[in-house]
Amino acid sequence: NTNEFKANISLSDQSRGDTVTFKYYDDENAAGNDQAISAFASIVSNTGTISLDKAIYAIGAKATVTVIDPDRNLSPTAINTIDSSGTFADNTAGDVTVKSTTDSTGLAVDLTETGVDTSTFEQKITMNDVTSSSGTTIDAVKGDTITFKYRDASDSAGATVAILATASLSATTGAVTLDKSEYASTGKVVI
After folding, report:
1. Residues 65/125, Cβ–Cβ less than 8 Å
2. 72-75 contacts at long range (C-beta below 8 A, 24 or more positions apart)
3. CB atoms < 10 A from the CB of 7, how many?
């Protein structure tokens, strides 16, 4: 018998700056008296981050966009989602949006938590020359800048902020090299 009691309590409807109080009433302490024992905790918010797995992509490549924000981990026992239903102050939709130089309207995308209680959310976005952006494909061409925006509803100061990550689309010219400059008619060519 350890005389220790543990409980998991899910908080809801608390805001940044709130203080949560936990009380225990001991009907007989070491001195034989009644005693109320309290513990306090502050509710804080965190500034999220957004990042990409590369700085430069080829046409048709898939970019992995990652948002880390403990505030979006709404259930520590489930895999959470940052969905595309929020709205920015500039009237663009989505908590995470992607735009390209070619498609300045862009699209809102959902990100899914990488596991239970990780606070890390990811999605793969394809960058391709298409008629219009949809789903997880953004219309983009060589030379475009791709901009990902995460709307953090409550950063560490309690403010709503937009956090950006950018990448560019590039193409390279292929090369062919031979192991020799001359071959016999029955020779083997190594490319």
Report:
1. yes
2. 72/48, 72/113, 72/119, 72/121, 73/113, 73/117, 73/118, 73/119
3. 5
Considering only CA atoms, which of 125, 126, 111 is closest in space to residue 69? 111
Helix (H), strand (E) counts: the chain: 0, 13
**Number of Cβ within a 10 Å radius of residue 119:** 18
What pTM does this model have? 0.74
What would the pLDDT profile of 106-150 be if each residue is shown by its tens digit? Answer: 998 999 999 999 999 999 999 988 888 888 899 999 999 999 999
CA pair distance 113, 70, nearest whole angstrom: 11
DSSP letters for 78-136: S--EE-TT-B-TTS-B-SEEEEESS-SS-EE--EEESSTT--EEEEEEEEE--SS-BTT
- Count Cβ atoms within 10 A of the Cβ of residue 9 and give its class: 0-12 exposed, 13-18 middle, 19 or more buried: exposed
Half-sphere exposure of 31 (CA within 13 A, CB side): 3
Q: What is the pLDDT of residues 96-108, one digit of tens each?
A: 999 999 999 999 8
Q: Are 135 and 123 in contact (CB under 8 A)?
A: no
The sign one gets for the Cα dihedral 177, 178, 180, 181 is negative
